[in-house]
Write a structure and sequence with these properties.
27 strands, 5-stranded parallel β-sheet, 5-stranded mixed β-barrel, mini-chromosome maintenance (MCM) complex, chain A, domain 1, alpha/beta, 37% helix
Length: 697
């Protein structure tokens, strides 16, 4: 690319003419609030419109041109006649954005725009730009401009020509507010398996302190380079950083996905198809056989409900949280990875190697912050307005798992560490996967008792799906055939890639691939989801009535002293979210009765698997929300009373055998009593003072 030659003529006067013509009103407004506000935002397309030559020079040589532009701005004055000496120009809306991974040496010293999300941010601190040094011999003050990150002192005194000593005079030095950011590529810009790249950004003055980690931004600035140094000496390799000129925070949801007119027509045509739900389900992980109910739930999670901000400041989440608990080899991880790549914004992480800090956010002290504390965003913050897929949830440490509670319900992440008090946003849906407590489901045990996750966390999931691997000859034959056909298609594809002139033809490959081909190509499907997120359906009266009737019908089962609580208001909110997501799949503006019925069917299917008390056959929400069913609580009450009575009888401790006998007389089997005693011991409610004896804590 050729460099633009130095422009002839008075550049400052040309900029003054431009500002007078296009930005006079903006300058008058700035002058009225100066010096509280010091920035004038200039849209790059306006410069192109007025003078394309000026626009080219600005892109090519911003370090030469921006001082002229700011000089032109400083020729204006406030209503009181005060010059706008410290006002700055902020260029925004540069049409061409450069990806961080595509930055090259050609971009150095040019004005560029980078899009991404804030990964780290240091606190705002003063930075010296003009240091005042007092000569200790003659007391004359010498000023030294500070360029870059290295602090420099004057060599000699301007008055006595001696080389010091000098003392830094802080009162006479000039400081500006400064902050350092690290910007990372957006997840939606990455191809599968790519490591996101980062770029350091230096920001100053009124741009500082306006962004937090997790924010999606467009940063316009000048790319600079600096030489690497090591104990061995200076390196021939240079690092780059961006000197920020302007920063725009992106609030819109999926606007960055570029949807062409042809794609929009295709999306609208798809949405009108009568079998759109079947098409969507068949487009999710087609290589995995079956699981239609789970794929339907995952489709609803991708499209999501509508977040609501209420007048009293309450925010109701629209994101749907789903948990898959299943035996090894039931394709949980594959489903998670597929959803993370399919979602317009998706992040996949595995619980085994994930800490609370890696999931939410943390304050760290490292080289980036030059030894100061820096706020760093984790996976849930980076997945803001997308989906975070967390595998192996059960393998995480308890203290790390507890970090999920706030992020799931309030959809915020609070940090209080090293003097940093911050609240970051994590408005994302969580798709979790876990193994049963003993590695595999026990078909004779309640499924809810085998999920090795705390009830406080389980209750935050809208849908919980157990995936049990139970042998079934007919079903196993279908799975085996599907897997082998998928492998065969893969073999043909690899063969033709390595031997293009071999016996395998493109037609053979296409024919074999049909089995595992998604009905909607993933690229278009991502855009379909992004497009659907722009619709905000409203509940119709009949749909509303349907949801209320289902909720009341279940609640009615809990009326009575001995009846368990079958469902809570949290489940009703989940139903609304599912119904809204169902309407979004059709790109509909209204939530119909069919949508409500779909939500009810999915919710009921989940509840039958995880929220039924096997002893009573009734729905009991406490199995998930508290971890103990109503029938179990009643038995625990009886056991405690038995132990209390025996303690009085035997002088302070109760023999186990007598406990089992008395419990059996009250309808509690020995196996059940042993199980409940183990639970009470784990909770610390009873202990064993001697072998064969129990005592209440």
């Amino acid at each position: 690319m050729q460099r633009v030659e130095k422009m002839p003529g008075d550049t400052v006067s040309r900029w003054e003419e431009f500002l007078e013509r296009y930005y006079k009103e903006h300058i008058l407004r700035l002058a009225s609030v100066y010096p509280e506000e010091r920035s004038l935002l200039i849209e790059f397309p306006d410069i192109v419109k007025k003078d394309p030559e000026l626009a080219d020079v600005l892109l090519e040589r911003p370090d030469d041109v921006l001082p002229d532009l700011e000089e032109a701005l400083q020729s204006f004055a406030t209503p009181t006649g005060e010059p706008l000496d410290e006002a700055h120009i902020r260029i925004i809306k540069i049409p061409e954005r450069v990806q961080i991974r595509k930055l090259r040496s050609d971009h150095i010293s040019r004005l560029i725009a980078i899009e991404g999300l804030i990964r780290k941010a240091t606190s705002v601190r003063p930075k010296i730009i003009k240091a005042a040094f007092k000569c200790m011999r003659c007391e004359r003050v010498t000023y030294q401009e500070q360029v870059g990150t290295k602090f420099t002192e004057p060599y000699t005194c301007e008055n006595c020509n001696r080389n010091g000593p000098f003392k830094l005079s802080l009162n006479e030095s000039i400081f500006v507010d400064a902050q350092k950011l690290q910007i990372q590529e957006s997840p939606e810009d990455l191809r599968g398996g790519e490591q996101p790249q980062t770029l350091d950004v230096n920001i100053e003055e009124d741009l500082t302190g306006i962004v937090t980690p997790g924010d999606r931004v467009i940063v316009t600035g000048i790319l600079h380079s600096y030489q690497r140094t090591s104990p061995a000496g200076k390196s021939t390799f240079f690092d780059v950083y961006l000197r920020c000129i302007s920063i725009e925070i992106q609030e819109q949801e999926f606007e960055e996905l570029d949807i062409s007119k042809e794609e929009e027509k295709e999306i609208l045509k798809l949405s009108e198809m009568p079998n759109i739900y079947k098409i969507v389900i068949n487009s999710i992980a087609p290589t995995i056989f079956g699981y239609d109910d789970i794929k339907e739930a995952l489709a609803l999670q991708l499209f999501a409900g509508i977040p609501k901000s209420l007048p009293d400041g309450t925010r109701i989440r629209g994101d749907i949280h789903v948990l898959l608990v299943g035996d090894p080899g039931t394709a949980k991880s594959q489903l998670l990875r597929y959803i993370a790549t399919l979602a317009p914004r998706g992040i996949y992480t595995s619980g085994k190697g994930t800490t609370a800090a890696g999931l939410t956010a943390t304050a760290v002290k490292d080289e980036f912050g030059e030894g100061r504390w820096t706020l760093e965003a984790g996976a849930l913050v980076l997945a803001d307005k997308g989906i975070a897929a967390v595998d192996e949830l059960d393998k995480m440490r308890q203290e790390d798992r507890s970090a999920l509670h706030e992020a799931m319900e309030q959809q915020t992440v609070s940090i209080a560490k090293a003097g940093i008090m911050a609240m970051l946003r994590s408005r994302c849906a969580l798709l979790g996967a876990a193994n049963p407590k003993y590695g595999r489901f026990d078909r004779y045990e309640s499924i809810a008792n085998q999920i090795n996750l705390p009830p406080a966390l389980l209750s935050r999931f809208d849908l919980i799906f157990p995936l049990a691997d139970e042998p079934d000859e007919a079903f196993d034959a279908k799975i085996a055939e599907h897997i082998l056909r998928a492998h065969y298609a893969g073999e043909l594809a690899e063969h033709i890639k390595k031997f293009p002139s071999g016996k395998v033809s493109e037609t053979d490959v296409e024919s074999a691939m049909e089995v595992i081909q998604p009905e909607v190509e993933p690229g278009l499907f991502r855009k379909y989801i992004a497009y659907a997120k722009r619709t905000y359906p409203i509940l119709k009266d009949d749909a509303k009535q349907q949801l209320i009737e289902f909720y009341l019908r279940l609640r009615k089962q809990g009326i009575g002293v001995d009846s368990p609580v079958p469902v809570t208001a949290r489940s009703l909110e989940a139903l609304v979210r599912l119904a809204e997501a169902s309407a979004r799949i059709r790109l509909s503006d209204v939530v119909t009765e069919d949508d409500a019925n779909r939500a009810i069917r999915i919710m009921e299917s989940c509840m039958k698997k995880v929220a039924i008390d096997p002893e009573t056959g009734q729905f009991d929400v406490d199995i998930i929300a508290v971890g103990t069913s109503k029938s179990q609580r009643d038995k625990i009450k009886i056991l405690r009373e038995v132990i209390r009575e025996l303690e009085k009888e035997y002088g302070g401790r109760a023999p186990k055998e007598d406990i089992y006998d008395k419990a059996q007389a009250q309808g509690i089997s020995k196996d059940m009593a042993e199980e409940l005693i183990a639970k009470l011991k784990q909770q610390g409610d009873i202990f064993e003072p001697a072998t064969g004896y129990l005592k209440l804590a």
